[in-house]
Design a protein that fits this description.
789 residues, alpha/beta, Rossmann fold, Pre-protein croslinking domain of SecA, 8-stranded mixed β-sheet, 7-stranded parallel β-sheet, 54% helix, 12% strand, binds adenosine-5'-triphosphate, cell membrane
């Protein structure tokens, strides 16, 4: 059944491509021929902007737009776009995902939808995975947009508010997914609407969409505020766990990446910190600090998970090999690592705003994306994001030779063989790219080569500054480039003179990644645009993936096979490696689905909150808004203590007066305690009279100057508290699974209850503040509760 379905999908995919080829491309071509003599392509853009306004002309306008871009690319870059590139561009304009094999020229393809959406005066965001690529594409592609008369901007993390706003005002804005997301969050934290930098989010073209929507999905963007960590305690805890031993003091669950103290360690801690029971609530903080220190010691590895530079700890992203700029490990883990590394502690972050990358892109009216490696996750794209994936055939057949994996018994033997292979290829002057999974691993290989006096260049998070130079040299004769995943996606290694004759670039993978897509990205640095090239993975039974997820199974292979210094090629072992990798992919998928489901609930709340906040920011109706808060506050109390479903004799009037406290005067004149609506009416009249008198004394500017900032402060603080409650709720909710409850449903119910509570709390604080102000201004003697009763 399933295979039939796949077949149908396959056919549908082919049908779509054939349809574009047969019916769309000829029309584009007609326009293409007709504009050959047109000098000013920017003039065509002006006309297109107008035709776009009329629905009846849009289709033809789109054909013309493609033709114009094709011509501009030829004039500006000297490149003639292939038909398959036009097909991919067409797919993107429909809001789908185009899968084009690595090296097929997606950067140029993206110009087609960028131009089309850019003409629509709403702003298009070209989303890259990192700033290096954003900057590279911006610089290179600006030449084309200039000819076309479209404005282009670049949005970088280091830019000022003014520079960013200018970048966002252009027809097309290049930038990274994280920065677009951070700007969105920051725009919802401003105290003046003029400080916002983005326009309404309209269109986004996402390059490497699998990296952005799938790999990035695990770490949300967090804007953190500053609250000083307790430095001493972190240092004490770091020192304390330093001597802890696995088995004796702690246990590790490698698969889920968790650590826990043993009972004997707990007793040690209790004795050292002189406490009776570490599990008591009052010791939660110590327990948390200790656990984070233990995680820092056991699970977080220098030059793998993080790097230390300039006395700071930087996160290294496993998927891209790059430093995650501006991000920190959360919940005190950052400080625990800093204490372990003995560098100054950064300020502990209190989440001020957070969003996941997936949700950032759900805010756009239309998105489209492309990748060389998305087919394996087609189902996820459709189910979670509602995006269809269409595979585009290659321009020329891929002739890269992907050799079978070689699997060795130990890492040591594997690395020996990797070095041998590098030297063998190097002796023939063939350029080699060695892919590693961490900075540490890249340095290990580099050291081995150094000791053999073999020249190489190294690309990892430490040499990021020289990235462009290293890449430019990586395809030259005799080049050896050792790289982390930084030389994965997007990196365009061009072959030097005579390299094609030597077999092109040879890629060596030294470990399988957590997903096949990342492996394929690495292979895809070679064999681009029909070039020759080859790739091979060298693996061992001691590799990280095996150690973490398949230790027992690997043991069987270790014992029952005849291992020597030579490895085994492909076969059953390669199958085993593949199975482990798919198992990991599945596990990651279920984590993502869970994160996504939780996040959808938080996202709905964030949207509701941001909408309210925007209203506050732009409000001109301050007196009415404030008065409304007071009236709602009072009404809620009256309903609470004088509910309609009870007879007046049962009403708790005493408690009502008590709750009103200082506001007693509003209830003072009420004689008839029989009808709650009448009570409300009377209170409202009383309030309105006094409020009107108060308003009359104030200048119109008073409200915006005094009330807006206080109001914003109140709602922002409440939101912050709410975010923290949600965080705690999420931690706690997993236990619900034991009680046979769906944790997400339980979370949803409770999260909305908390959200409503936040609304009530805001109203209460505002109402009280308003009433207080009114009292202060009239200098009325405060009526004490007992005077009222
Ligand atoms: N139509 C074309 N004719 C000739 N060269 C082209 C054409 N289109 C793109 N190129 C070149 O092909 C190379 C690869 O392009 P690009 O880096 O955009 O590929 P990609 O599909 O984005 O690869 P990856 O999947 O690795 O990111 C570049 O050097 C580019 O200039």
């Amino acid at each position: 059944m399933l295979s039939k379905f796949r077949q149908w999908l396959g056919n549908k995919n082919q049908r779509e491509v054939k349809n574009i080829l047969a019916h769309i491309l000829p029309k584009i071509d007609k326009y293409y021929k007709s504009i050959q003599d047109t000098k000013a392509l920017d003039q065509v853009s002006v006309e297109l902007r107008t035709s776009l306004q009329e629905d009846s002309k849009r289709k033809e306008a789109l054909y013309l737009a493609f033709a114009v871009v094709k011509e501009a690319v030829k004039r500006a870059l000297g490149i003639t776009m292939h038909d398959v590139q036009l097909i991919a561009g067409w797919i993107l304009c429909q809001g789908d995902v185009a899968e084009m094999k690595t090296g097929e020229g997606k950067t140029i393809v993206s110009l087609l939808p960028a131009y089309w959406f850019g003409l629509q005066n709403k702003g298009l965001h070209m989303v890259n995975v990192n700033e290096y690529l954003a900057k590279r594409d911006y610089e290179e592609m600006s030449k084309v947009f200039k000819l076309l008369g479209l404005s282009v901007g670049l949005n970088l993390a280091s830019m000022s508010e003014y520079e960013k706003r200018t970048a966002y005002l252009q027809d097309i804005t290049y930038g990274t997914c994280t920065e677009f997301g951070f700007d969105y969050l920051r725009d919802h934290m401003v105290s003046e609407a003029e400080h916002r930098v983005q326009r309404a989010l309209s269109f986004a073209i996402i390059d490497e969409i699998d990296s952005i929507l799938i790999d990035e999905a695990r770490t949300p963007l967090i804007i953190a505020g500053t609250s000083k960590a307790a430095p001493d305690l972190y240092y004490v805890c770091a020192r304390f766990v330093r001597g802890f031993l696995e088995g004796r003091d702690y246990e590790t669950d490698r698969e889920s990446n968790q650590v826990m103290f043993t009972e004997s360690a707990i007793r040690k801690i209790e004795a050292a910190f002189m406490i009776d029971n570490l599990y008591e609530v009052e010791y939660t903080v110590i327990y948390h600090y200790l656990l984070q220190s233990l995680r820092a010691k056991v699970l977080m590895h220098r030059d793998v998970d993080y790097m230390v530079a300039d006395h700071k700890v930087h996160i290294v992203d496993a998927f891209t090999g790059r430093i995650l700029e501006g991000r920190q490990f959360s919940e005190g883990l950052q400080q625990a690592i800093e204490a372990k590394e003995n560098v100054p502690l950064s300020e502990e972050n209190r989440t001020h705003a957070t969003i996941t990358i997936q949700k950032v892109f759900s805010l756009y009216n239309q998105i489209a994306g492309m990748s060389g490696t998305i087919q394996t996750d087609e189902e996820e794209m459709r189910r979670i994001y509602g995006l269809e994936v269409v595979s585009v055939p290659t321009h020329k057949p891929i002739i890269r030779q992907d050799y079978e994996d070689i699997i060795f018994l130990t890492k040591e033997i594997k690395y020996d063989r990797v070095i041998e292979e590098i030297r063998k290829r190097h002796a023939q002057s063939q350029p080699v790219l060695v892919g590693t999974t961490s900075v540490q691993q890249s340095e290990d290989i580099a050291n081995r080569l150094s000791s053999l006096k073999v020249p190489y260049q190294i690309l990892n998070a430490k040499t990021e500054q020289e990235e462009a130079k290293i890449i430019a040299g990586a395809g030259l004769k005799g080049a050896i480039t050792i790289a982390t995943n930084m030389a994965g996606r997007g990196t365009d290694i061009r072959l030097g003179e005579g390299v094609a004759q030597l077999g092109g670039l040879h890629v060596i993978g030294t470990e399988r990644h957590e997903s096949r897509r990342i492996d394929n990205q690495l292979r895809g640095r070679s064999g681009r645009q029909g070039d020759p090239g080859s790739s091979q993975f060298f693996l061992s039974l001691e590799d990280e993936l095996i150690e973490r997820f398949a230790k027992d199974e690997a043991e069987e292979f270790r014992e029952s096979w005849q291992w020597g210094q030579e490895g085994f090629l492909g076969g059953k072992l390669q199958g085993f490696m593949g199975t482990v990798q798919r198992h990991v992919e599945q596990q990651l998928l279920s984590v993502r689905s869970m994160v996504f489901r939780f996040d959808t609930i938080i996202h709905d709340q964030r949207q509701a909150f941001y909408q309210q906040r925007n209203e506050v920011l732009q409000s001109e109706e301050w007196p009415a808004r404030l008065s409304h808060s007071v009236v709602s506050y009072m009404t809620a109390f009256i309903h609470k203590y004088c509910p309609d479903h009870k007879v007046p004799e049962e009403w708790d009037i005493w408690q009502l007066k008590r709750e009103f406290g200082a506001e007693g005067p509003f209830l003072h004149n009420i004689q008839d305690w029989q009808n709650s609506q009448k009570i409300i009416d009377q209170v409202v009249v009383e309030w309105t009279n006094r409020w009107d008198a108060y308003i009359a004394q104030r200048e119109p500017s008073y409200w915006k100057q005094i009330w807006r900032p206080s109001y914003l402060q109140i709602i922002d603080r409440s939101w912050l508290d709410h975010l923290e409650s949600l965080q705690q709720l999420k931690h706690g909710i997993h236990y619900q699974a034991y009680a046979q409850q769906d944790p997400v449903q339980a979370f949803q119910k409770e999260a909305w209850r908390l959200f409503n509570q936040m609304g009530d709390r805001i109203q209460k604080i505002v109402a009280r503040k308003v009433m207080q102000e009114l009292r202060d201004s009239t200098n009325e003697p405060i009526q004490r509760m007992n005077q009222v009763v």
